[in-house]
Amino acid sequence: MREYTEYFKKWEEKIGAFIEIDEKAIENSGFKGAGKATSEMAGEKSEKKHVAGLPFAVKDNIAVKGRSISCGSKLLENVKSPYTATAVKKLEAQGAWVIGKTNLDEFGMGSSTDNSALKKTNNPWDANRVAGGSSGGSAAAVAAGLVPFALGTDTGGSIRQPAAFCGVVGLKPTYGAVSRFGLVAYASSLETAGVLADSVERCRVVFSIIRGKDENDQTSVEAPAKAPKPEERSGAPRIIGVLPAESVAKAIAAVAGGGADSEQALFIAAQAATLEEEVRKSFETAKKNLAALGHTLVDVEIPSLKYGVPAYYAIAAAEASANLARFDGIRYGKRPDWAENPDDLIDKAREAGFGSEVKLRILLGAFVLRSGFQDRYYLRAQRIRAGIRRNFEALLGGADYAGDGVRCDAVLLPVFPTRAFDRGPSTLSPFAQKAADLYTCCANLAGLPALSFPASVENGLPVGVQLLGRAFAESTLLDIVDGYEKAHPFPHPSGYEPFWD
Ligand code: GLN
């Protein structure tokens, strides 16, 4: 019994993935040796064997009754959730159990998990580097083998980017495919709950359990009848569109107008979108491996992608400034010891409770929504969003599954321009980190599913790539990546020992 407990403690000391751990549950888990956990709990052939009896981790912005729901914020530190999110309930109903709540960038705002106000999370491959974000704790816990899978949220890349940095599978489902009941809202029209897992098969089983319409979330829906079913696997060769990453960086640099400040910002943005040599190499490896598996690769263009980041940040900040208005320190959360009047109480609670990135985004959101200027920023961003969706639908087909003329089954994109970055002087600036969200935020703007997976290891660090698909076609993406995993088993950091199969 001690083995798993010790393994867990040793890794957790090094990576700091968890904000709250259920120590008793770990002690009582009965996991005695590596690779033994599942078959004892459920029949070998059962789909359930991928979850039944197994522990999982939950990002600390997803509710689990009686557990922490800090969102990585001082304002909600020590708050316990009074109820459980639908996705968690569904997994518990299949016999999986929550082992703890994982670290994240405060309210999901960031790409490193260093924006957490509560602790640092390190990358299991190199503890001097970030785990990625915002679901960094969940990704690190899976990569280190502390849990076979974890739940995260993805508003602009927060499942896929840490999955890529830590070398695990990360699925951001179609908008509405998984209930958001029990998620603390950051940007409601962009975000989804999704899966981080140690294998494609496990990711598939977890996704099939958590998906579906939920009475408690009116934006949740069942997949259309014609969409491929996650339960039906297919090894069919596919047509995969490939976006040449250099073309996007060039297109950003070529956006003209706006004066000197804007020129400078575009220059940095174009630089930030340019792939690091190792990532470029890994992207080429992914292309070669996919072609060798029998898939046909074709080059595609997504013309409006170059406007993706500004549109994403205008919309995400606008929604965040509205959603975060509920945190006033009155009903729950940290409140000041003394205040002159209710307004002063709210001011003091927010001043002390929110970190600087959160304050920045609330201000940005208020700025883009201010009276008389909506047309200039927010509505313009919504038009760009519609353009990005149309560009993808022209390639992949729409959510209604009507009509033909579809050019490809999936689109291959980088996840992030760099591998996991370190915290030294060469680290990515906050602005560059935002500009680098280019490759992930487009799936959220378009509401499409995207699956990130480790393509290769370059100079000791994993590199992820992602496939984007038609709305509700998660299964197609899982099929392609399942073939990839079988031919190129996913890598693990040294010291990794799985306690389940
Ligand atoms: N990096 C993005 C941001 O900071 C993604 C966040 C997310 O998906 N929650 O907004």
Structure in a nutshell:
This protein has helices at 2-15, 23-28, 86-93, 136-143, 160-166, 200-210, 245-253, 259-273, 277-292, 308-323, 342-353, 356-369, 378-396, 430-435, 438-446, 474-487, and strands at 18-21, 55-59, 97-102, 122-123, 126-130, 149-154, 169-172, 192-197, 239-242, 296-299, 410-414, 450-458, 461-469. With 501 residues, it is α/β, with parallel strands linked by helices. The chain has a domain at 2-40 and 49-238 and 450-487: Amidase signature (AS) enzymes.
Describe the overall structure:
This protein is of the alpha/beta class and 501 residues long. It has a domain of 267 residues: Amidase signature (AS) domain (Amidase signature (AS) enzymes). The chain has 16 helices and 13 strands. Strands 1-3-2-6-8-7-12-13-11-9-10 form an 11-stranded mixed beta sheet, sandwiched between helices. A two-stranded antiparallel ribbon has the order 4-5. Helix 7 packs antiparallel against helix 8 and helix 10 packs across helix 12. The longest helix is centred in the last third of the chain and has 19 residues. It is globular. The model has no long low-confidence stretch (mean pLDDT 93). The structure holds glutamine. Glutamine binds next to strand 6.
